[in-house]
Amino acid sequence: MGTIFTQIVEGEIPARIVYEDETTVAFLDANPLAPGHTLVIPKDEYERLNDVPDDVATELYATIHRLVPAVEEAVDADASTVAFNNGEEAGQEVPHVHCHIVPRFEGDGGGPIHGIAGEAPDLADDELDDIADEIESRS
Length: 139
Ligand code: 5GP
What we know:
Blueprint: H1 4-9, E1 17-20, E2 24-28, E3 38-42, H2 54-74, E4 79-83, E5 99-104, H3 125-138
Antiparallel strand pairs: 1-2, 2-3, 3-5, 4-5
Guanosine-5'-monophosphate (5GP) binds at residues 4, 15, 27-31, 85, 91-94.
């Protein structure tokens, strides 16, 4: 049956589709955080960003790049927050990679992405060096 987003791709449930190509599709979020809140997904089902093949990732970013200005202009937004909840512990509810484009407006009462991760850790320089090395060695 697939995820709810696969059902949208297959036309089995309705959605306000705003863009579609061979690999990706974008549609309005059913519970918008702001007017114009849009989701961009790969048509094929991948749970996390980590699962998306390189060629699909390239297409996905191209669609995001195209949609951000389109969404902002459509609702006369001042800015946008563009983000993925990547994994259940990060708040991902639908296990099908999706990018949120949330239009932002001066004085909208929202916050920056810095507020998402709970209490900030107090990391010493050597810990930061170790973390940087670990990431670099896997990049
Ligand atoms: P997540 O928490 O997984 O990052 O976000 C899932 C998003 O999908 C939510 O913002 C939710 O409102 C949206 N959503 C869930 N079900 C549907 C649906 O059937 N149609 C549309 N258009 N959006 C949905």
